[in-house]
Amino acid sequence: MKLAEPDAKMLEEVGQLAEVRGRSLWADARARFFRNKAALAGLVVLILIFIFAMFGGLIAQYERDFVDFSLMGANAYRGGPSIETGHYFGVDIDGRDLYARTVQGTRISLLVGVVGALVAVLVGTLYGATAGYVGGRVDNIMMRTVDVLMSIPFMFVLILMLVIFGRSILMLFIGIGLISWLDMARIARGQTLTIKNKEFVEAAVATGVKPLTIILRHVVPNLLGIVIVYATLLVPQMIIFESFISYLGLGVQEPNTSLGALMSLGTKQMNNGTLWMLFYPLFFFLITLFAFFFVGDGLRDALDPKDR
Amino acid sequence: MADPILSIRDVSVTFDVRPQGAWPWTPSLKLHAVSKLSVDLMPGETLGLVGESGSGKSTLARAVIGTIPHSGGRITYEGRDLSEMTAQETRRHRRDVQMVFQDPLAALNPRMTVGDIIAEPLITHEPDTPRKQVKARVAELMEKVGLLPNLINRYPHEFSGGQCQRIGIARALIVKPKLLICDEPVSALDVSVQAQVVNLLKDLQAEMGLSMIFIAHDLSVVKHISDRIMVMYLGCPMEVGLAKGVTAEPRHPYTQALISSVPIPDPVLEAARERPVLEGDLPSPLNPPSGCVFRTRCPKAQPSCAQARPDMDNVAPDRFVACPFQEVEKVLADA
Question: B67 vs A202: CB contact, 8 Å cut-off?
Answer without folding.
Answer: yes
